[in-house]
User: What shape does this take?
Amino acid sequence: MNWIERLNTAIIYIEENIANELNFSKIAKVAGCSTYHFQRMFIYMTDMSLADYIRRRQMSLAVADLKNDGAKIIDVALKYGYNSPTAFNRAFKSVHGIAPSLVKYDGVAIKSYPPISFQISIKGVEGLNYRIEKREAFRIVGISTPFSNDYEENFELDSQIWKVLDDNGSVAKIATYMNCLPSGLLGVVVGNYDSDSYENFQYYVAVSSTKKIDDTLEEYIIPASTWAIFSGEGKYPDASKEMWRRIVNEWLPTCGYEFDNGPEIEVRFNNDWENEKFEYWLPIKKAGKDRPHRKAKADSSRFAIGFLLEI
Assistant: This one.
């Protein structure tokens, strides 16, 4: 099945297990990709994190539960995986803006977030420049920074890391070790891509090099991979984030490939924040021919928000 079918199958899985403990790695597995790639692609396609989506769906369904006569907040909280009324109150208020105890009153305004669905809208847009390359393993050297356990925080962390290392002279030092391809400053995310946690994730500012390093730098071996390489330019990091959004929304749904588990690489050619020339290197493999996790049942009572992916 294609990427759009996989996304919708993952949404169905979430709905079927909305009152159970939802494991991000299981959701990603249903979609046929790593936990890291699924979460990152989800936020670019929907403008919300996977955690936010699940929270909105649970709190929307919790409203109906709370309106039942005799419903206890603690029971509804436990149903959706909250072990304390305080945690449930916080989550409920973040979605609806009111405490769950107020839902029973007439005239109280609440929000409804129906299940999302994905579909492709074919439109003529500016083409994406890319190439496919196979590369043997290569070594990078540089400085790594741990990612936090908060994916939304990591969403902006990479550009902050660049600014700090640029200002203290580390980027200039790292650049002197560059002596092989890819020729440019590299931003590399490495870690266990199937893990729900980012405890072992690192973000490297590095270069490709065979030179001996001192104890202020680290090395990492990028495994042999097939890469989809996209080129772009513009103000950094806005242009690179827009490039990633286009890759996910325009290229991935119909390309015949899927992301392979492995490091993502951003190559910066001139380290110019106002007009950066860059490439994205994404590890890929041929799309599998596996079947959906579970076929969707027709349900005329289910409303859905459709995300149109413009091609």
